[in-house]
Write a structure and sequence with these properties.
Strands 6-7-8-9-5-4-3-10-11-12-14-13 form a 12-stranded antiparallel sheet, with helices on both faces. It is an alpha+beta fold. The chain has one domain. The N terminus is likely disordered. Helix 10 runs antiparallel to helix 11. It is globular and about 55 Å long. It has 12 helices and 14 strands. The longest helix is centred in the last third of the chain and has 21 residues.
Length: 394
Amino acid sequence: MQQTLGSLVATLLLVAANALAAQAQMAPAQSNAGNATLSASSSATTNISSISPATQAVISSLSNLPEADMLIYVNPQRILNEALPKFLPAKDIEGMRKGFEEAKKNAGIDPTKVQYLVIAVRFRKPTADLNFQPPEFLLVSSGDFSADSLLTLARMASQGKLRDEPYGGKTMGLMTIEPIAKESEKNPFLKSFTEVAVVSLNANTIAAGTPGYLRSAIDAGDGKGRISTEALASLVRDPNVLISMAGSPWGSFAKSFGMLGTDTTPRAPRCDSRIGDFYAALTMDATNFMVRGMSNADNPDTARIFANLYSGLLQFATKSVPDASAQSLLKGLAITAEGDEVLVRADFPQQMILDLIKQQMKPKQAAATDVQVKPQGQPAAKPAVKRRRSRRRN
């Protein structure tokens, strides 16, 4: 099973790395009363009334999330049921499915029935003493499982280290990560990561992450500080994605470094720009993996400048990479400027990715040894005999 999981992880990393590292497709963020939140840019705004019922169902499920500055959406069902079987050997697929059956039997969860995994990141304003605050993280999963049962298993697995804290009508489980807590005594920056929390948001949705962000998730369930529908529509605009990502780097920077004020002293932004807002996605059809990316450049002139710069860097990188497979991937990227956005597109044949994965997972050939084998029938050479020197007696 360990070998199966290793192959699974390696495959996901290779596919995601070959795609996501090549993209920058941006969906938007807006400043809301001095608090930057993720949303859709003007030209990339998705017409919510025209999206598919499947996408609307996901948006509805995610609508209770708190505000976020970056979102990553993972579609486990498509990855496990459609993508991985194209790459893993039949033996590994069978072993993986047996492992899923054991997980369903022992933990009541079937990974192939998980509807989505969403990772949310929220940046924070500096404190009153002007100290930088690390971002907060949240992992939310929903599907055909019992969130309460998983939370019970988490308590059992923690061996009493998970302590209960009531909040907003729910019971969070909090646990101190001792190695980080000990290290934070020397490095105060790590104090924000000394605790992790987990909570059942509803019957089939469980969340884990930074305690403060988890409390915001509970508040969002009550209608306070919810993420915008436009942000979610941008994140899951394509219901067939394997992985998608959206974020607002400029808004995150402005928030973290006091351009919007501090926790105690708000400040109106002096530069309200969505430059750098992005959306990126990896999806697939019957024959190809498709990469789609978009980066907001604020205006058409800046978009063309960025597109030319990125294209030049791409050509340089292509010539500098010695690996032929990597060169093929880089050559498949098309970077263009459309309006005030920089677009990245690429279609990679599934067979190309399959060949690349096989090449990367192939065991290295044993290095040639210095031992020389004599042809058959040829007598072995006799070892050299060292002669002793004799002294001449006078």
